[in-house]
Amino acid sequence: MKKRRFLAAALALAGVAATAVAGPARAGQTFDAVRQRGTLNCGVNVGIAGFSLPDSQGVWRGMDADLCRGVAAAVFGDPSKVRFVPLTAVQRFTALQSGEIDVLIRQTTLTMTRDTTLGLRMVGVNLYDGHGFMVRKDSGVTEPRGMDGMTVCLSPGTTNELVTADFFRANNLRFTPILQERMQDNATALQAGRCDAIGTDATQLAAIRSQFTKPDDFVILPQRFSKEPYGPVVRRDDPEWFDVIRWTLSALIQAEELGVTGTNAEEMRRTSQNPDVRRLLGADPLLGNALKLDPAWAYNAIRAIGNYGELFERTLGPKTPIGLERGLNRLWTEGGLMYSWPMR
């Protein structure tokens, strides 16, 4: 008798679980709030060339700014429906935790403790980078072990602050840190001679140097001391919103893998017989339905900002003032680390 009652209870619980899985899912609170508001609140850097920096007309430009536009295009079909919220490194996580922003796309290194202890969720990698140092050329320093006794400008609340301290300690070297929230303040201090070096990620160093009056007077040392994968960050309160951000980023990478660009996306949507292309661009509505978005969600994002390769080349690439080669940010088929999960 007890066995029968136990079996009946188990079957009843299984039935409830099956109903919960099979029943219609509701969008989470962030996803609903964004759609009801009609605007994406996107946290970006207060101003770093190539990532997020207002131009002379006040229009935000750079990789991070365009990723915000790509998400807005995926959600609303309109890349202009985004409000940029400039944040320092110290401000960024609090702004996300408090609900001031919906997503943080601001040169943020994805780390275990950030992912597990802040009530936030790291989404995926949009740029692979590594910590480095920039010094004056006339210092004669060619590698970091020659920086003993230097004053180093750093931003507090960053992985770079920790990496710098670890490097000098491990090599029994001395340094004096100067901590300033805004990277532009560090750049000004280096040019004015108030510090001897800046410690931050290599892409940021290149971006900073591109804005100097005399960029050739400064050298970015070639050594790298850390893994700094950048990516968007969201709160843990809404797994469906997490999915939207993750798969929008993945769609841009998938587009490059498939040869879909901002200019040919419309034609490929009409004419391609490739099932991967058809799913990506919404000719087959499978992916849009899975995200509770319009079937053309990825198409709209790609049309707005291009595929991942176009985004990189336009904002950071060799033909920009920053002049970065793609390196680890090449596609996996070209020896890099950029790799889209299968979108099917």
Automatic annotation (TrEMBL):
Keyword check for Signal: yes
InterPro entries: Bact_solute-bind_prot3 (IPR051455), Solute-binding_3/MltF_N (IPR001638)
Domain Solute-binding protein family 3/N-terminal: 39-284
CDD domains documented for this protein: PBP2_BztA
Signal sequence, renumbered to the chain: 1-22
Pfam family, one: SBP_bac_3
Keywords: Signal, Transport
Superkingdom to which the source organism belongs: Bacteria
Record carries keyword Zinc: no
Coiled coil: none
Annotated family: Belongs to the bacterial solute-binding protein 3 family.
Protein name: Amino acid ABC transporter substrate-binding protein
